[in-house]
Amino acid sequence: MDREIPAGEIRARRNRKILRGVAIAAVSLGAVVALIFMMRKGVKEADLDFSEVERGSIETSVSAAGKVVPAFEEIINSPITTRIVEVYCKGGDSVGEGTPLLRLDLQSEETELGKLRDELQMKLLSLENTRLNIATELNNLDMQVKVKEMAVNRLQAEVANERRLDSLGSGTGDRVREAELAYNTGRLELQQLRSRLVNERKVKQAELESAKLELSIFRKNLAEQQRTLDDARIRAPRSATLTYINNEIGARVGQGERVAVVSDLSHFRVDADIADSYGERVRVGTPVKVRVGRDMLPGTVASVTPLSRNGVISFTVSLENDDYARLRSGLKTDVYVMCDIRDDILRIRNGSYYKGPNAYEMFVVDGDGMLARRTVKLGESNYEWVEVVEGLRPGDKVVISDMSEYRNSRKLKLKK
What we know:
- The chain has helices spanning 7-39, 107-168, 173-232; strands spanning 42-44, 50-52, 54-77, 82-87, 94-95, 102-104, 240-245, 252-253, 258-275, 287-292, 295-304, 312-319, 332-349, 358-365, 370-381, 385-390, 397-399, 411-415.
- It is an alpha+beta fold and 416 residues long.
- It has a 6-stranded antiparallel barrel. A 3-stranded antiparallel β-sheet has the order 6-4-8, with no helix packed on it. It has a two-stranded antiparallel sheet with strand order 2-17.
- α2 runs antiparallel to α3.
- The longest helix has 62 residues, at 107-168.
- The two termini are 68 Å apart.
- 18% of the residues are buried.
């Protein structure tokens, strides 16, 4: 038969059920809390770069893309259309001034130059012949004038005699008039000869000057032909490194075609491009910093192209230490054109996050070991610092690493 369960045992069983339920609920709640905690995004502190907000000054700058090039580089072009006969050097050779680099086929040009020299001798002989003919013609005309002067003098004497005879009664008035007419006619003929002599001298002088000018032009053409032939004997213009040479023997090269390049690889400059919106900040003499690896090399803007192409302005940087050991031709560099100085401002270190003055979403370290996203307004910058306009206070610790993968997160756990 059934027996009655004691009240104490019933209470004990009830208490055990209550405790079991409480334990299950506590475990479930702990599991949920743990799950929520585990689902919260976190990032390791060691994987991040931080910058503490501090007060200081910034020498603002604008950045440009640059490329290291030799301070001196000369392209040697073929002055004529011909072919390559011999090559004496190869790319990378150090060459001295006047060193032969290659030989072009110059046979036809040398033949043409010989013809021009012979033609020059013919023109010299022709000029001398012209000078002698002119002198002969002018001498003959001058002699005619002298003969005519003597004839006029004789006619003048005859007029005087006829007048004297007529005054003595031995002559007649007709003979006096005839003598006077002959005298006057002779004077006019003498005047005509003298005018002709003057005009002939001017004409012959102009003819001689024209011949001399023609000879001078021919000599200049001959000198240009000689210079072209000398340039066709390809030589190094100065002591440098041969960075390129056309070594295809027998290859056809056109007039003006590049056949060699010599460069001074011991000194360098930087060719840079910058957006034309910053064009007013780039002027000749403006201080510049060039980043080479982790080093910053000072320099100045040496020249600026006056025109903008595709929204870009090009300029050249002259380096103070242009023989720096780590400089290499073709090396890509960051160029910072220094603008002005801002004192007593908040600043953080520059990094890949900065894209220019604007508002940014940045993560700031909270006191509870969390990273909280905050809107921060940044201003001007240089290669080292960025100006903080608003959103941060001195002493704040800001993440300056790339946090684009967490752009949808408001908070992140900072893991040790």
